[in-house]
Write a structure and sequence with these properties.
By secondary structure, the protein is of the alpha+beta class. Helices cover 63% and strands 15% of the residues. The protein folds into 2 domains: 134 residues, Ribosomal protein L10, N-terminal RNA-binding domain (Alpha-Beta Plaits, 2-Layer Sandwich); 44 residues. Strand 4 and strand 5 form a beta hairpin. The radius of gyration is 27 Å and the shape is elongated.
Amino acid sequence: MVTAKKSISEEKKQIVSNLESLVDNKGAHLFLNYRGLNVQEMTDLRSRLRSADEDVQAGIYKNKLTKIAFDNKEIEYPGSLLKEPSLIVSVGGDICKVSKICVTYSKENKSLLIKGGIHRGAYIGGDVVEQLSKLPSRDELVAKTVMLIKGPINSFVMTVKNPLNKLIYALKAIEETKK
């Protein structure tokens, strides 16, 4: 009987260690109250999260073990964050993209509630997560920046190219008339 208790204790230590490494390796952690979701809805949410970014990990951990891991990493958070069952979505990539998925899913399915999260070691509330979901993703910002840089260059090229095209068309027209 004593051996079983030690193995459970070691198992819990391993879970806390895994949570601590998640905190170290991922920049953000969103806490979602999943109570009321059935297995199919939970699977759908997880597949949406996986398809959004390859650096997303969603898991359900005991609140007490999560509290120990966060306390070990000296992360401050309100006690209400770990009151009810939580799906912890750990994000190493674009938090805006992932928060957009979570907020959209919570609007589609009223059972999913966004409690808040931890971003770069600081607590963010559910309202901040919703604001993050409204921001453009990193990919969108890069695309807009490239277009802003590319626009004047394209205009310059077209301005330089246009007189040359007119000259070529004029020469071709003269050639056609002489034939």
